[in-house]
Amino acid sequence: MIVKATAPIYADRAAKLVELTGSFTESIYIKKGDRTADGKSFLGIIALSIYPDEPIEIICDPPSTDLKAKLLSSGLFASFKN
Questions:
Q1: What pLDDT score was predicted for residue 65?
Q2: Hey, what's the torsion of the CAs at 8, 10, 12, 14, to 10 degrees?
Q3: Is the CB of residue 28 less than 8 Å from the CB of residue 59?
Q4: How far apart are CA 36 and CA 44, in angstroms?
């Protein structure tokens, strides 16, 4: 799924994201451009330097329909439209 951050993902927002993704048993990855980080890794997420309005791909293996709903309702991300 492609989303965009609603604000820069720094320490407090990265911690919130790790808490959210950590509640899933599935493997979750976050891809920005050509770089990919483990969605459950605080430092990995910080290293991606995620800023608002940039397209971010969230990869869940196996796919989870619940993940998108939780990400969008968290306030961290919004739907991305080209």
A1: 83
A2: 90
A3: yes
A4: 8
Residue with tokens 């608002």: 52
Q: Are 6 and 53 in contact (CB under 8 A)?
A: no
User: Six-digit token pair at 45?
Assistant: 């997420």
Residue 13 token pair: 């927002």
The SS3 assignment for 19 reads helix
pTM of the model: 0.90
Per residue in 2-44, pLDDT (tens digit) is: 999 999 999 999 999 999 999 999 999 999 999 999 999 999 9
> What domains can be seen in the chain, in order of their start residue?
2-79 (3.30.1340.10)
